[in-house]
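Lab meeting prep.
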Amino acid sequence: MDKDRKPLIFDTSDGQELRINTINTYLKKRFGKKVVKLSLDGGFTCPNRDGSKGTGGCLFCSASGSGDMASGSGHIMTDLDQQIELLSDKWPKARYIAYFQSHTNTYAPVNELRKKFYAALDHPNVIGIAIATRPDCLPEDVLELLSEINDSTFMWVELGLQTTFRHTMERMNLCYSLDDYDNAVEKLASKGIRTVTHLILGLPRETEEMMLDSIRYVCKKKIFGIKLHMLNLVKGSQMEYLYPDYVSFETIDDYVDLVISALELIPSEMTVHRLSADAPRSTLISPAWSYKKRTVLNQIHRELRLRNTWQGRCISRDAAVTP
């Protein structure tokens, strides 16, 4: 540990030394107020659910397409209003980003996408949009729509990569490749569109060094942000039947140690959008402790201070490894 190096502190506005460049801090600085993401289920599906590339979905994915917290009544404005009403007492002056979360949110005819995306942006309290998708679902007409939206509002696109290792991709039934991801990042960058990459920590048969190799790989890309998920085994997923006894991390300490190693490799300018995972307790199988999201996050922040380390501390010394 570099005892003589001054730690990089990203935010002290809440009285704490925040050693991570969180998306919350970024948005607060950019817009001058609290900005909250509202999760939406736009009614889409995925190419490895409908048979065009595969069936059953990614093995770890819940029946809701990893959008268990998302609202999906079919009326986007109503879903936004209901969520804002629930949050208005806590954050009466907040503004919101409409987050299309469930399934693959660019996997539909472009006219349908246009209608739903602009319906969310029409809400008076919505100041931006985030769109989660797969790296193989960005045809040219969709890219043009995203570019049009990006030119008129604040936006980012989230790409579910999960891992950089081909054998893991195949085992998890992702039905896309690392080349698909590389091409998607390049296409989005050419349009000036911010990209956020999802990685899952704790996938079956992956070692800690493999997970860190995936971190190294995506951090060499020109991306806006990164999202780290802890693998949760949930009811209704294919993993429930194929890996019924699987536990990604035995203890919170095990997970926190890995996350801190990952953070040290992430460039300081890259926004961190997630460090844990959300799964309703009613569907969570393992790790049994992972629903304690606040406990996990508090321990990460505490350990960063105790170890006198921070996001990006090791990046200048670390040699990149290409999987």
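Slide two material, second protein:
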Amino acid sequence: MPDPTHDPQRDARPTLEAVAARAGVSRATASRVVNGGAGVRRPLVDQVRKAVDELGYIPNHAARTLVTRRNGAVAVIIDEPEVRIFSDPFFSRQIRGISRELTAHDAQLVLLLVEGSGDLDRVTRYLAGGHVDGALAFSLHTDDELPSIIRRFGVPTVYGGRPERPSPGTDAAAPPVPYVDCDNRGGAREAVRHLVSLGRRRIAHIAGPRDQTSALDRIAGYHDVLPDAGPALVADGDFTAEGGARAMEELLATCPDLDAVFASNDLMASGALRVFHERGIRVPEDVALVGFDDLESVADTTEPPLTTVRQDIEGMGRLMVRLLMERLNSGTGEWPASVITPTELIRRASA
């Protein structure tokens, strides 16, 4: 039996025809305004938008795609194990910046994780299917296949972090790949100079993975200040707290008289600090310690609080989106220039 209180008119979804009638324009004009098309005079645009608000009209995504040739979605591709992405606060901060900026541009974030060849095949099929307008890719490694896949399908992309220089045989005519990165080398120099200014003379370095340009640039910055530092003073980590602890154990075995450590990120610095506590080594009295990133959830909660190099991680995520949107909205198809953001030494109690 019909519900006498039910009002079909109230439940009916507003149509584009209703929007056009309310605004006093043709359906074609209403469609161009609603779906992002061009060529409509400003007063008519305002009339249509007012009608949309009054009727509560929701644009049809498929129709918008046909008009704008855009999906309203951007892929965020991260080439790291899932467990690291959801445990390392660096990634959460960068994704937060990306998400907030995409929201401001009315675009959807599609997260694609690459952990192995199976994931790479899946991501390749997705990109080939034209489901996204562009991509943001970060945490790339020197042996990554992703850049060549992205080039093959012509997906507009901005990289987080300086990509590896093109290998021999790469198309020399291809335009440079835009990226957003911080001044890794300069930040590392500032960290090591600070330790030198404290009178420290046996300064070790816990390096990040050498298949990532950020780690290589920070190693270079360390050697800029300490060109005579031998290999015994450098131990490799993996940007995790556990990797930092292992590297610190190695350094203490080879250089028991070290009096300072520059770690390539805050997580590895926290692992080194744990080793110091376990061995009764005082920080900063016996060994001064500096990290890199300035992750609040790490640097502010260590004991003692960590002196570190700050990079604007969330801001870099926002910049990546802005560069991509500038490219997508450009009528020339030209890419904007890459951006290197400054770093800042944040002094706390560990050095």
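Talking points for slide two:
The radius of gyration is 26 Å.
Residues 4-11, 167-172 have pLDDT under 50 and may be disordered.
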